[in-house]
Specification:
Elements lengths: L3 E4 L2 H8 L8 E5 L10 E5 L2 E5 L6 E4 L2 E2 L6 E5 L4 E5 L9 E5 L8 H5 L14 E2 L2 H19 L6 H26 L1 H20 L2 H5 L4 H7 L4 H12 L3 H17 L6 H7 L5 H12 L3 H7 L1
Parallel strand pairs: 1-3
Antiparallel strand pairs: 2-9, 3-8, 4-7, 4-9, 5-6, 5-8, 7-10
Helix pairs in contact: 3-4, 7-8
Length: about 300
């Protein structure tokens, strides 16, 4: 049975890295002044982690796959995720790291926003690649957090720390938007593949056997995390992946409703609905008419 190191507390991670714990709920460190993590081990995180790479920083794995993790890239880890570290012998870590426990941000505006930072659930080949100017912005925010931790804690500390983390994550949202744009050719190819897979799904008998298609189903076929896939489709089409799937369903339903030899229940089943009433409800929500009303009108 493979060994997994459970890191529920930030102090436990700092101990592995040889980093001083200045605050039990947050740690900011320069990797060049720390030890390498234990090699060939899997680690379960109980807190958020943000890593900025500089130079050769070893090999990270998530879900048994290598991160697309070159010089000047960022990787984000959420509580509950498991990473595997594999390094070459005698390598020296570089870059910067930020760890913060969910308890740190309780009661702050950041706590309400964390679910919006979908890149914490991106996978191995979806890391954020930064330009030199973007790297400097992120490094400045790391330094501000380090400075704040070096000061005596007062009534302003928590809000200042949370605000700086929020600012860093908001910059990462902007930089990911830029990355989606600069990788337009790759994204267009993924969008085209998604459309083809969507057509194939309904032209086959998958809908009858599997049911309604999910975002996760297509993301898996395209070897992407559901969040990254969803964000990419949203950037390219202006609609979420789920909305694109539903739009396809509605358009197909409109076509098939004209076939009066089939009952509405048959059409619902062919499209993947387990219960006809669910199909009726979705169709009326999107068209303003029930399937029977729409058939009569046309």
């Amino acid at each position: 049975m493979e060994h997994i190191i459970k890191l529920e507390k930030i102090a436990a991670y700092n101990k592995l890295k040889g980093v001083e714990t200045q605050h039990p709920l947050i740690s900011v460190y320069d990797n060049s002044n720390s030890k390498a993590l234990p090699n060939n081990n899997r680690m379960h995180f109980g807190f958020y982690a943000v890593f900025l790479k500089a130079g050769n920083c070893g090999e990270l794995k998530y879900g048994r796959n290598n991160y697309d993790y070159d010089d000047g890239t960022m990787v984000f880890v959420a509580p509950g995720q498991v990473l595997e570290v594999k390094n070459e012998d005698n390598y020296q870590p570089t870059g910067m790291g930020l760890l913060f426990h969910p308890d740190l941000i309780k009661g702050t505006s950041l706590a309400k926003l964390m679910s919006q930072y979908s890149f914490f659930s991106y996978e191995f080949h979806e890391a954020l690649h930064l330009s030199l100017k973007e790297q400097q912005i992120i490094k400045d925010l790391f330094n501000k957090l380090q400075y704040e931790l070096s000061q005596s804690i007062d009534k302003h500390s928590k809000s200042i720390i949370a605000n700086n983390i929020e600012l860093m994550l908001n910059y990462c949202v902007r930089f990911y938007d830029r990355q989606f744009i600069t990788r337009e050719n790759i994204n267009t190819d993924i969008l085209s593949k998604f459309e083809n897979l969507l057509n194939d799904y309904f032209q086959s008998e998958n809908a009858q056997h599997i049911g309604l298609p999910t975002v996760g189903y297509f993301a898996d076929l395209l070897h992407l995390s559901p969040n990254y896939f969803g964000d990419l489709i949203k950037k390219e089409t202006g609609k979420s992946a789920q909305e694109n799937i539903q739009l396809k369903l509605i358009n197909l339903a409109k076509e098939r409703i004209f076939d009066t030899e089939k009952s509405i229940s048959q059409i619902a089943f062919e499209l993947g609905f387990k219960y006809p009433q669910h199909f009726n409800r979705m169709f009326k929500k999107n068209t303003g008419y029930t399937p029977i009303e729409y058939r009569s009108l046309n």
